[in-house]
Amino acid sequence: MSVLKESTKLDLHNISSLVATGAGFDFLRYYTLPDFLGNDAPYLLYYMGKNMARQTSIHTFDELYEFFQYMGWGELSLLNEKKKEMVFQLSGHIIEKRLFQKLYKVDFRLECGFLAEIIQTITENTYECLEEINEKEKIIYITAMKG
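^ thats the sequence. predicted structure below, dont judge the formating
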């Protein structure tokens, strides 16, 4: 009889112990997954991000910002907050490198799904996120809209 180990949610303490290389992650994300998932890859990556968020223990925006850095997703910050939307900025060296490589087309669907789910956890309101890539400024704007 096998014993199932109870799933441990990721938090800032245990995520920092993971070892990752950006190149390996990008290869899986931009080559392998789209090959398996086909045209549905952007939609499925969004929901994969939401699922990843459900496996974490993030309860504040400061923890969220730190988590993005640990994951190698860039520096996330809140630019503007209105009654029904929040606008975030995703920037930094990692974002610049992802935007200016010529091997694959980048998107930020995984990050958007993750962000939407975490904002829902923090605020107890449903949100959906869309990204806007600003190549000139080397910044990603992510708009979270209340559902």
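The two ends are 45 Å apart (CA to CA).
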